[in-house]
Write a structure and sequence with these properties.
Layout: H1 4-11, E1 17-22, E2 25-30, E3 33-38, E4 44-48, H2 51-60, E5 65-66, E6 77-81, H3 87-99, H4 104-115
Helix pairs in contact: 1-3
């Protein structure tokens, strides 16, 4: 099981990432684009994910993932239950969501730095 603090530790290592409290909800953004957001009770984590792939993700693991609320269906977004995620899976989901928001150059620089062990993000 992962927590908001686990996600926070990872997000703080990512270039251009910033944490915000919006309507009493923790969100991580790149510029104005939200790539991770938590429910008020911090049990659910919404994250950037390709629209065309989310139905398959939810169908494959319905105990772990769920579709976003109706108003968010237009976005590249899906929701995970934090209690069902392990550390490695959370890292992959958060990094992939972040990569959807940053320029290719930033993404490649972060990947190279991670491979060299300069950051904790991979």
């Amino acid at each position: 099981m992962v927590t908001v603090d686990d996600v926070r530790r990872l997000a703080r290592t990512l270039p251009r990432s910033s944490e915000h409290l919006i309507r009493d909800r923790i969100k991580f953004r790149v510029g104005k684009i939200v790539y991770v957001a938590f429910s008020h009770d911090e049990t659910l984590m919404g994250f950037g994910f390709p629209k065309e792939e989310r139905e398959a993700l939810v169908a494959a693991e319905p105990d772990k993932f769920q579709m976003p609320r109706e108003s968010d269906l237009r976005f590249n977004w899906v929701v995970a239950r934090l209690a069902a995620l392990d550390e490695a899976e959370m890292r992959e989901l958060v990094l992939d969501a972040w990569r959807m928001c940053v320029p290719k150059k930033v993404r490649l620089e972060q990947q190279l730095a991670a491979e060299r062990g300069l950051t904790r993000g991979a």
